[in-house]
Amino acid sequence: MKQPRSIVITGASSGIGEALALLYAAPGVALALTGRDSARLAAVASRCRAAGAAVEAAAIDVADREAMARWLGSVDAAAPVDLVIANAGMSAGTGDGGESEEQARRILAVNLDGTLNTIHPLLPALRARGRGQIALMASLAGFRGLPGAPAYCAAKAAVRVYGEALRGDLAGEGIGVSVICPGFVKSRMTAVNRFPMPFLMETDAAARVIRRGLARNAARVAFPWPMAAAVWLLALLPPALTDGPLRRAPRKP
């Protein structure tokens, strides 16, 4: 969608979500922003209002299905949503001694259930209006399971495939669906990594790439291209060739 006027962005208190909120903020635009850190979210909302946008901000855990449904219902009633960006996510890995069941379940709850909790409360209204766009934040890590971040890779793979299937399912109803697959982007999530991050991108640059992709209703917005090409090749190779090198790769903390 080239000029959405009512936009929902989850995970808007930092990282890519914050950068997208600031990029879309303009007079005549209504932004509905949510994130877990109320202080950071308030700061982002203030900057978006200064750019001329009308902003509704609420600190909500996207894994809370009922709270998300209530909030999204009120947002859509006030300003019918054109674009929803299911961006909220979290990451952790095995670098500090393995991935516990609790950690794995929390990552899946935020990254996967949180995506569903963002999309489904709005789908009936989008369908009734016969227009709108959904953007799902996956990752290049969703193309191949990496020993350093099992639950994160699994969640992002599920989001990617779900979004690709949803695009075809909703195409005849006038609703666009795009899957976003970033590589390494500077954020609080990547700041804890203790290993080299090839082709690390600035957050603002990533947001601009995403906006351009959404404006043309791209099926997949994957970047940066050298990293995307490497990951696609890795996914095509048989595990017999890739398991060994991946086992020796650095682990995410």
TrEMBL record:
The keyword Oxidoreductase applies. PROSITE patterns: ADH_SHORT. Keywords: Oxidoreductase. It comes from the Bacteria. The keyword Transferase does not apply. Residues 5-188 form the Ketoreductase domain. Belongs to the short-chain dehydrogenases/reductases (SDR) family. This is Short-subunit dehydrogenase. It comes from Azospirillum picis.
